[in-house]
Amino acid sequence: MITKNRVKEVCEALAMLIISASICWFIPFAVLASPNSVGALSEPQNITAVFDEHTASRLPTFSYDDVTQGMLVYQTANGNLMPSLPVDTQVSMRVSGLTNRVSVKQVFSNHTGFVLNGRYLFPLPNEAAVDSLRLHIGERVIEGQIHPKQAAQQIFEQAKAEGKRASLVSQERPNMFTTEVANLAPNEKLVVEISYQETIKYDDGVFSLRFPLVVAPRYIPGLTLGGESGQTGRVTSSQVFDADRIIAPIRGAPGEEDPVLKADIKVNLGLGVDKAAILSPYHAITLDEQQGGLTASLANRVRAERDFVLQWRLEQGVSPVAWVFNQNGKTHQTQAASDDGSMVNTAASTSASNIDNYSLVMVLPPKVEASGQLNLPRELILVIDTSGSMAGDSIIQAKNALRYALRGLKAQDSFNIIEFNSDVSLLSPVPLPATAENLAIARQFVNRLQADGGTEMSLALEAALPKQRPSRAASENNVLQQVIFMTDGSVGNEEALFELIRHQIGDNRLFTVGIGSAPNSHFMQRAAELGRGTFTYIGDVDEVEQKINQLLTKIQYPVLTDLQVRFDDGTVPDYWPSPIPDLYRGEPVLISIKHQPREPKELVISGRQGHKNWQQFVSLESTELNNAAAAVEQQVAGLDLLWARKQIAALELSKNGANDDKVKQQVTALSMNYHLVSPYTSLVAVNLTPITTNAMSRDAVVRQHLPLGWQPFGVLPQTSTSSRFDMLLGGVVLMIALMLALFIRRQQRQQHLMMQALSH
Questions:
Q1: Is 636:96 a contact under the CB 8 Å cutoff?
Q2: Which of 209, 218, 291, 615 could pair covalently with 606 via S-S, beta carbons 3.0-4.6 A apart?
Q3: 472-492 b/e with 16+ CB inside 10 Å = b?
């Protein structure tokens, strides 16, 4: 009896131990799943909560007593209140041939009783050459001036301290900028107008432009909160030195009382456009035909939560074989001090023969029929991002893209699949032959993929681009080594990833596929350029099949390689990009050139078309190679800005640690000369008249929408580990433990009743 009771006591002790362990295991994950818990967020989402905390810690005290009727505030992760600053975006575009001049007006409104100082992190196209800032105060317009970044910040902070209205525009990434406004008086509106120049994309007869409307949260490796000696209030990262500059607070649930950020877009397409071929795949538009040409506009103001894309074709008979656009002199003339101290326009003191001219040249390579292309076997490595930021519509698009890519493989091909989040998982250690059995296994692998965890993209790139790949391509000739990389690009350590691609690309070709409503186009396009591939954007599930099939057909073999540009006398012009990337079917040669009037006017573009030499002569004095381009205007403004922006991008990519200071000096000088915002220069505008008010000053922020299709933060725990499996397992064990506890409790009650009966 004693032994039986002893065994029973030991069993009960073990059961209670299991119960305690299950509760300790499950409760932390239950807390993580709470919408108010920072730990429930993936890295990009966690950054936002940290940003709220460190930003609020630096602001003047703001309490419920400060809240007045009509004021919009939100509560940070640590419980502090912050005013929320409404912003309305108005975009106006004018397309001229292959260029697009864009004006972006940001209307800041102050509905509080305080003087507000605000900061807004916003996106622009990754090759936008931002050259103009105007501050509108009622009827007054203050022109912004270009300064080195630190000097511009000092001018802005001084104006802010003196009670003067001011605005500062800075670049955080080539596709990410900040607008700061100072001393926005109560019940006042301030309009910040930013202008930029860009080129239009052309692919297989279709012209297109893309305007981003939201900055998706970024994954920051090595994220910490606090500075040296345990100081708090600053977001830092061991891998991203400016982490606190590229993150912004995000709106929570849709029902929250917070200003909805909306945008209105108008695009003047000019003459010669086929009205029936104008399309906006993600937004409803209206068309207005006037004397100046066709104008496409958003049918209604839209929520700033997904990229705007517009596509069009030219009328029959207008499609070009070659286009040349010219500009004499610079858009912004630099000034210098004369001997008597007065400012002299340097352009006026320079002879016409020494003035720099700029040209934008587009040449279409000859069409290659599918039957004439080499049908080489390919080794296709498919990489898919399954991090938490891909949850929702993005992972559905990416998985469908994988399925279509697998369907496009031929018997002579081999393949592998790599998925990555906080870790990397491979379908196979080595590429597999594209047999029916292997493809069936691959489809099962794809079906099991779920979006969860961080975005450790470097691990995926190292797996996809190994320096020594165990594959058939290493031992066989004429096998195309291609990597298709599907991701939303929501990372903040782009420079480190570019360096990795540059050193490990080898003989591979890297093709990036942007997934979702707001992918990081800067990373996607630069990565493809370094990988000698192309960038494809998929913004909707319905586009997946068409665009993946087009991509697989296009990348079967480059149409032109080893492209070079020279004058007909053998001299080499100052052109960008350099080197020119390989071209695939439907892609044009697009180069930006700086030249002087005394230099030759005949340009020779040459390259390799398969095993044959190819070359094309283009005159810089003519708009056409044949009569097909007669509708194109020759003189276009802003070409110097495009040339300078291309050179800045090339200089930035050339940084290797040892030459960083030299590159900074070169980029700063170039940006100052062409009046461009860059990593080291900013535009600042200051109204010299201080505001007249006794209201107290407060800092405010613009809260961004989540990109369309993203999971709201806290709805599902997307951590940097496999939380869903742990929670499920913890829940099952907890249920078993509770059932065991109830059984033990019932046994104890029966034993107690039996003892009572025996005692009587």
A1: yes
A2: 615
A3: ebeeeeebbbbbbbbbbbbbb
Structure tokens of 582? 């390989």
Distance in angstroms (rounded) separating the CA atoms of residues 94 and 198: 11
| Encoded tokens for 756 | 């009572």
Alpha-carbon span 267 to 45, nearest angstrom: 34
CB 624 within 8 A of CB 318: no
Burial (CB < 10 A; 0-12, 13-18, 19+), residue 697, is: middle
DSSP codes of every residue in 441-503: HHHHHHHT----S---HHHHHHHHS-SS--SGGGTSSS-EEEEEEEE---BS-HHHHHHHHHH
Q: What are phi and psi of 63, to 5 degrees?
A: -125, 180
Tell me the two tokens of residue 478.
Answer: 């004429």
Token pair 């207008």: residue: 318
Are 185 and 124 in contact, with CB atoms under 8 Å apart?
no
163: left (phi over 0), alpha (psi -120 to 50) or beta: left
Angstrom distances, CA of residue 630 to CA of 183, 207, 403, 605, 627 = 52, 18, 44, 21, 6
| Residue 499: C-alpha distances to residues 183, 464, 494, 645, 655 (Å) | 42, 15, 9, 20, 9
Tell me the C-alpha distance between 547 and 208, whole Å: 15
Residue with tokens 């099962």: 444
Per-residue pLDDT of 285-317, as tens digits, reads: 999 998 778 999 999 999 999 999 999 998 876
Alpha helix locations (H) across 357-417?
393-407
pTM: 0.82
